[in-house]
Amino acid sequence: MKSFVLLLCLVQLLGCHSVPAGPRLPYREPACDDLETEQAALAAVDYINQNLRHGYKHTLNQIDKVRVWQRRPFGEVYHLELDTLETQCHARDPTPLANCSVRQVFQHAVEGDCEMHVLKQDDRLSVLFAKCDSTPDSREDVRKVCPQCPLMAPLNDTKVVHAADAALAAFNAQNNGSYFKLLEISRGQLVPLPASTYVEFAVAATDCVTTGVTDPANCKLLAEKQYGFCKATLTEKLGGEEVAVTCTIFQTQPVALQPQPDAANPASPPPALDQAAPVPSAAGLAAAALVVGPKVVEVPLGPPRHQAHYDLRHAFTGVASVESASGEAFNPPKGAQPGIAGGAGLVPPPCPGRIRHFKI
């Protein structure tokens, strides 16, 4: 009996070794810091910034996770999880992202958390799906680095709003050209010593001239938008207050013509927006062509005014996981496992990837 059991076990063991390897499973997992992964991540961040209308541009900080799915009939889809950091460039600032400084911890940094689907086909990259949110660093962490540094205040704080209004009035009084209107308050901080309010805000030019404005409500924004970004400090003093403001006015931005769906087929999805721009390069990263899509149909109004920053979750309202060129939805199969390139015991590629700036 014992001999029979031993023989049966031996047969089963030999049978296990004789089973041929199965077909490759649905996705693969390259390393988070591989060249191909970083190209897709930079294309995703570029897409985020192209669609921001409020707050500040973001830059890539870390790639947390990547899976690459085969897409039929051609191409691959990169499913990415990314961490970003807020820069000091406003969303409407045309300064290239590479020239934008990252907001440091002592300035009360903001971190973004994004899930993106990026299609790579014929060496071109297009964003199929974008979902992000962002969170300021905790008060406790800021205090550890800089106990006396001011923290972010709600955008509708009465002192912040008053400082922005007073600073804009001072700027318009010094300006002999177009009258500028407040577009948004982007950031506010209450400084204890000396008692003051620091505020950053975006402005837009109107069809009025500052010297002839009697009722600002009648001033309309220009058709070809001209935006600006201001930083100001309102200091409280005995018997009054003092305002110091500096504004940078950006070049006029022409009206962008949005592509429309094929008139012969109203049900067809809108075509991708071909920006014909290279993916930002870093440390010798090879450039790749970039196609941006899907189109954001409507510019969201931003977060509730009681918040202290413009959350990235409000940047992609209406963006669906669809493919502009083919209309084919990208839905990874549930319960799928990674593709296996070799035998048993293969070590998974390293993720998350390197931290480019700092972790909060």
TrEMBL record:
One of its GO terms (molecular function) is cysteine-type endopeptidase inhibitor activity. GO terms for cellular component: blood microparticle; extracellular matrix. Residues 1-18 form the signal peptide. The keyword Phosphoprotein applies. Keywords: Disulfide bond, Glycoprotein, Phosphoprotein, Repeat, Secreted, Signal. Its main location: secreted. It comes from the Eukaryota. Pfam families: Cystatin. GO terms for biological process: negative regulation of bone mineralization. Gene3D superfamilies: 3.10.450.10. Residues 27-133, 144-255 form the Cystatin fetuin-A-type domain. It is found in: Secreted. This is Alpha-2-HS-glycoprotein. The gene is Ahsg.
